[in-house]
């Protein structure tokens, strides 16, 4: 498929098919002329493209059919709320629904004749009112949604109740507000179970449930979340830990990952997260190649019962259907300052599961320091510490002139306490000059008795890395010129000065997913 962008909007499972709607520019590999593309899948892996679902053909969405959300009603019917940018560039909310609810492919959509159903309320600027969420039921039987906005520099989520998705009541106050975070877009709000290992329908509430608020911050283009308590009566949400409130604490992903959206998959009782992986090369390069942006591998999302503060993200189980030949490496010793090649053949499409153990004696003997560590400002893998960095070099060529390290760094404080960081170093990912070469990462909680574990999905120019079962996740978009196809290799490395590590790995070569037009005359109906 040519051109961009691929921001997920209105995902759902309906009559046996997963539906992926996305913001799409059919004319160029840059932002603009946004309409809704549409693809379907039986397994979230192999996708079939359908005709455009909605185009910008009404006064209320003439400047763009932007992000929306699907709600499945108790009778099984679907309603879609979406933001339109009007002929006057005012952001308004609109209602659409399938022309034929018996069509499992949901090919044709009807825009409600009375659109828009919501306009910016008093005190909200015309361009600060977008991205309605999936609706959830209140105990009074009303549907409730939240919409992102801001007042001055305070990011907010407005709350509306409705009985029919046409008439709305704005609740007093807001779902939540965080000063200094700027415009909240693509807000998401959903319950997670404190006890079960499965996802929950958006309307579920009760004592065994926590609620997540996620906002995409327009100011810094990152997705932040926080876990807390939802008070249905007044439509507010309070974070469990204000120090890690929305926009100032935890992120879904510490790499290039934005405008993410979840949906409840009633087919497998799970909550699935989609995220947009933008480009990090130049716009000129995007124009030259004729397309821009990809979607992440869908992830399941669960409450991390061990920390109580984090979510756990993990690739959907269906990705394992692409696994081909596997390789096992047990207790590979990697001495301080060394690199160990792993012979797995071409290393451009891999699923890697790895565990690392650091030499306990070195860990105990190492003197602590009051120097604070940060992945982004540390200088990457060339900056050596007593206890790190160590991990994997993916998408590397034989000479290591190109490499993308995915690694842990253990920092011991002067108080003797240990903190573990999980990082991706793009500084030598490509010899090309017009690409982003940031170092990504963050702290990852490692609890008593846990080994250091990671999973890495490598797909030519995308590296999705999951540490400690998905507590901390990093997506890198890299552009190797030498470490491509058969010339791409995989290495273990340990650039610590004092500690050796041992690594055990299982690695699969991965097949390609097929993505093609839907093979049916129905497209032309």
From TrEMBL:
Keywords noted in UniProt: Glycosidase, Hydrolase
Ranges where the Glycosyl hydrolase family 32 C-terminal domain occurs: 318-509
Domain of life, source organism: Eukaryota
MF-aspect GO terms: hydrolase activity, hydrolyzing O-glycosyl compounds
Pfam short name (any one): Glyco_hydro_32N
Biological process terms in GO annotation: carbohydrate metabolic process
Domain Glycosyl hydrolase family 32 N-terminal: 10-315
InterPro entries named among the record's database cross-references: ConA-like_dom_sf, Fructan_Metab_Enzymes, Glyco_hydro_32, Glyco_hydro_32_C, Glyco_hydro_32_N, Glyco_hydro_beta-prop_sf
Family in the record: Belongs to the glycosyl hydrolase 32 family.
Descriptive protein name: Acid beta-fructofuranosidase-like
Source taxonomy: Eukaryota, Viridiplantae, Streptophyta, Embryophyta, Tracheophyta
């Amino acid at each position: 498929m040519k051109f961009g962008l691929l921001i997920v909007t209105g995902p759902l499972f309906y009559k046996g098919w997963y539906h992926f709607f996305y913001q799409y520019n059919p004319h160029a590999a840059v932002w603009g002329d946004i309409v809704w593309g549409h693809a379907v899948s039986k397994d979230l892996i192999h996708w079939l493209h359908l005709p455009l679902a909605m185009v910008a053909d009404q006064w209320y969405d003439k400047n763009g059919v932007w992000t929306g959300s699907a709600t499945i009603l108790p009778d099984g019917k679907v309603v879609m709320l979406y933001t339109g940018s009007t002929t006057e560039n005012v952001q308004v909310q609109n209602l659409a629904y399938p022309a034929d609810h018996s069509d499992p492919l949901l090919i044709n959509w009807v825009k409600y004749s009375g659109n828009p159903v919501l306009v910016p309320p008093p005190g909200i600027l015309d361009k600060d009112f977008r991205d309605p969420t999936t609706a959830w039921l209140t105990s009074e039987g009303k549907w409730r949604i939240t919409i992102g906005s801001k007042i001055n520099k305070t990011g907010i989520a407005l709350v509306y109740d409705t009985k029919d998705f046409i008439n709305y009541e704005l609740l007093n106050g807001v779902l939540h507000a965080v000063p200094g975070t700027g415009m909240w877009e693509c807000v998401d709000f959903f319950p997670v179970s404190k006890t079960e290992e499965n996802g929950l329908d958006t309307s579920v509430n009760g004592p065994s449930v926590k609620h997540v608020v996620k906002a995409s911050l327009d100011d810094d283009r990152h997705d932040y979340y926080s876990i807390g308590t939802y008070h249905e009566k007044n439509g507010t949400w309070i974070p469990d830990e204000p120090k890690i409130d929305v926009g100032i604490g935890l992120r879904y992903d510490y790499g290039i990952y934005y405008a993410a959206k979840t949906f409840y998959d009633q087919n497998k009782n799970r909550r699935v997260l989609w995220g947009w992986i933008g480009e990090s090369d130049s716009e000129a390069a995007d124009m030259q190649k004729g397309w821009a942006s990809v979607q992440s591998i869908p992830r399941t999302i669960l409450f991390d019962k061990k920390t109580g503060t984090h979510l756990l993200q993990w690739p959907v189980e269906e990705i394992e259907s692409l696994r081909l030949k596997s390789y096992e490496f047990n207790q590979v010793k990697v001495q301080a300052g060394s690199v160990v090649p792993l012979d797995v053949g071409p290393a451009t499409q891999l699923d890697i599961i790895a565990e690392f153990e650091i030499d306990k004696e070195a860990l105990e003997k190492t003197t602590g320091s009051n120097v604070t560590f940060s992945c982004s400002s540390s200088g990457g893998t060339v900056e050596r510490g007593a206890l790190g960095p160590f991990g994997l070099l993916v998408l590397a060529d034989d000479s290591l002139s190109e490499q993308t390290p995915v690694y842990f760094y253990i920092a011991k404080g002067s108080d003797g306490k240990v903190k573990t960081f999980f990082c991706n170093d793009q500084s030598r990912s490509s010899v090309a000059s017009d690409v982003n070469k940031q170092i990504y990462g963050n702290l990852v909680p490692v609890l008593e008795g846990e080994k250091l574990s990671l999973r890495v999905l490598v797909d030519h120019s995308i590296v999705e890395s999951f540490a400690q079962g998905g507590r901390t996740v990093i997506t890198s978009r890299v552009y190797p010129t030498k470490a491509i196809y058969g010339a791409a290799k995989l290495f273990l490395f340990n650039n610590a000065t004092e500690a050796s590590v041992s690594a055990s790995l299982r690695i699969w070569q991965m097949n390609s997913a097929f993505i093609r037009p839907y093979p049916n005359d129905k497209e032309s109906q």
